[in-house]
Design a protein that fits this description.
Chain A is mostly helical. Chain A is built from 14 helices and no strands. Chain B has two domains: 21-96 and 171-269, Rossmann fold, CATH 3.40.50; 104-170, no CATH class. Helix content of chain B is 35%, strand content 23%. Classes of the chains: A mainly alpha (332), B alpha/beta (269). Chain A binds chain B through residues 224, 226-227, 229-237, 240, 244-245, 248-249, 251, 323, 325-327, and chain B through 73-75, 93-95, 97-99, 101, 103, 105, 107-110, 118-119, 121-123, 149, 151, 165, 169.
């Protein structure tokens, strides 16, 4: 098996350093065409700011792709990293041009509700301090909530899975409180907690806590009993059985719980920021919508998509590190 | 330094008890509750195993041999009867009595080396005895695989790692619960030889459960034949042959016929 792998690598190395990356050149041409369309096709309804800026972004991408093509001739690392995205690098300028045509150039979509791409760029250039501030506040709130929820969920899950008496008291709480959508508790928590921020922190923690607890518990209780027998005959203490047998064996489940908890925490965060917390990306969305600043809303949504995706990717990165012993685990 | 070490070794052999554990099983009975009533598994079993002896337990499938091993390992308390290791009651698991199970049950998240180190780590001895882990791996011929994960091993290799994990604790009683049951016949023959070699070198007492009559005859000093559940001892056969033994030795073939007869398979063979 390993010899086959070796042959494969050699094959691809020879190919990448040998031939010119034609898909890359094609992608560069598409990006350049997009830039031309943006600059030379006249706007339909009004003259949009940052049109030239958007074209410059396209030209920058063109230059980067050309650079990758040239570097790929010399550096296998560059070639190997750039090549898989070839088709997407062509699809993106096509989609961008389509968006540009439908909004700025032909005015087919109603104007205040559908912003052209240069309007988003305009927002990033003009309003970046407010966006960055919102992102930071969201990150602090989400980070604290998820950290508290994941930590308590992990401990609770191990405790329920391990100790019958703890399970006796925690299990009913878990069954009643866990499935309640945290958003339903939002009005109550805003009333009970000293600040809307602490209320949101609690709810984000709760939304993370539930799946992490359930999955950790299921992980601990599904550990093969033979693992405990082996450790016991070798002189293991209770402490060893928990920390060196139960928890490592349960870790794959724990990561599924963390993944679900993180997903749930995103929606709580946004709802909480829309309803009470006076900062953050959810608040920005609400604020932009209130001013009918739809371009700002799209700009914030795009940032949020990238940030959430980045967090999930980070989680999977940690999982792949910790669970390197697993074979054929899903790739994010 | 080497000679001093050898001397102290020889000295300790003279003054201390031997490497093997003396096992005494007296009137042992055990059962499980199954759907509300009690299912007897062992019925008044008595057996003495001398230090350094290799005893094989044979019997019909499900007769309670493995239960006996779990009791001897201290994994479960017996319902009634006496279990003594060197005259002391066996009440809990102890690293001097190590079990090798039918499945290797290696921890998939630990590399081979860390799996072998498990016992020493659990007892808090690992820091001072790291060399023992390397030694044990070398003993079973897997030194090059120290950094591998269990999923990268074949069945025979995994079972050899399990053996190394047991031996690193220098057990005085090695409990073997069909350790070769799931291996292919070639690996099995090779590992039977290894089991004998290791036992002869280390001098521990060995208790082997197997379904393979030939395996019992090749390895053991004494074969105990159990009845169907609840298990009672049906026969004890002492094998008066040194090692290495040959599977086509007429003496062993004769015993084999005798044992198969006891297990109710006599006519068909």
């Amino acid at each position: 098996m390993s010899s086959v792998d070796l042959v494969d690598t050699h094959e691809s190395e020879r190919v990448t350093s040998g031939r010119i990356w034609l898909t890359g050149l094609l992608a560069a041409a598409f990006w350049m065409a997009s830039a031309a369309l943006i600059v030379w096709w006249p706007d339909a309804t009004r003259r949009w700011p940052m049109t030239q800026g958007l074209a410059n972004v396209c030209l920058t991408v063109t230059a980067l792709i050309v650079l990758a093509v040239v570097m790929g001739r010399w550096s296998e690392g560059v070639a190997r990293r750039a090549r898989p995205s070839g088709a997407w690098l062509i699809a993106l300028p096509v989609l961008l041009s389509l968006w540009e045509l439908l909004t700025a150039k032909l005015g087919l979509l109603p104007v205040p509700f559908f912003a052209p791409p240069q309007a988003l760029l305009d927002v990033y250039v003009d309003d970046w301090p407010r966006l960055a501030d919102s992102l930071l506040h969201s990150a602090i709130l989400l980070g604290s909530g998820v950290a508290v929820g994941a930590a308590t969920g992990f401990v609770a899950g191990v405790a329920i899975g391990w100790s019958r008496s703890i399970g006796y008291w925690l299990h009913p709480v878990l069954r009643i409180l866990g499935p309640v959508p945290s958003t339903a508790l939002l009005p109550l928590c805003f009333f009970l907690f000293p600040s809307s921020w602490s209320a949101s922190l609690f709810l984000i923690a709760l939304a993370t806590w539930f799946p992490v607890t359930v999955l950790t518990w299921s992980g601990v209780s599904s550990v093969d009993k033979a693992y405990y027998d082996v450790a016991r005959t070798l002189g293991a203490t209770q402490r060893f059985l928990i920390f060196k047998v139960a928890i490592p064996a349960a870790l794959p489940h724990v990561f599924v719980g963390l993944f679900m908890g993180l997903g749930a925490s995103f929606s709580i965060l946004v709802v909480a920021e829309m309803m009470g917390v006076k900062s953050g990306i959810g608040w920005y969305l609400q604020w932009a919508q209130g001013w009918a600043a739809y371009a700002n809303m799209y700009a914030a949504l795009l940032i949020m998509a990238l940030a959430c995706s980045g967090l999930i990717s980070g989680l999977f990165l940690i999982r792949d590190r910790l669970l390197a012993w697993q074979q054929g685990a899903m790739k994010w | 330094m080497v000679s001093a070490h050898m001397q102290s070794r020889a000295h300790s052999n003279l003054t201390q008890r031997s490497a093997g554990l003396a096992l005494r099983i007296d009137n042992l009975s055990h059962g499980f509750s199954f759907e509300g009533h009690r299912l007897p598994v062992l019925e008044r079993v008595s057996l003495d195993v001398a230090p350094g002896e290799f005893v094989a337990l044979l019997g019909p499938s499900g007769c309670g041999k493995s239960t006996l091993l779990r009791l001897v390992a201290g994994l479960e308390p017996a319902d009634s009867g006496t279990l003594l290791g060197d005259g002391l009651a066996i009440t809990a698991p102890d690293p001097s009595r190590v079990v090798v199970f039918q499945d290797p049950t290696l921890y998939p998240w630990r590399r081979v080396w860390d799996n072998v180190a498990l016992g020493l780590e659990a007892q808090g001895l690992l820091k001072t005895t790291k060399g023992k882990v390397d030694e044990a791996l070398a003993k079973v011929g897997l030194s090059q695989f120290a950094r591998a994960y269990p999923r990268q091993l074949s069945g025979g290799m995994a079972q050899r790692v399990a053996l190394a994990r047991a031996l690193v604790n220098e057990p005085r009683l090695l409990i073997l619960d069909e350790p070769l049951g799931k291996l292919d016949s070639l690996t099995r023959i090779a590992m039977q030889q290894e089991l004998i070699d290791l036992w002869q070198r280390q001098g521990y007492t060995a208790l082997l459960v197997t379904h393979d009559v030939e395996e019992a005859l090749l390895l053991a000093n004494r074969v105990i034949v159990f009845s169907d559940r609840p298990a009672t001892i049906k026969a004890e056969i002492t094998i008066e042959r040194g090692y290495p033994r040959h599977r086509d030795d007429p003496y062993l073939l004769d015993l084999r016929k005798q044992i198969l007869g006891l297990l109710g398979l006599g006519e068909r063979w």
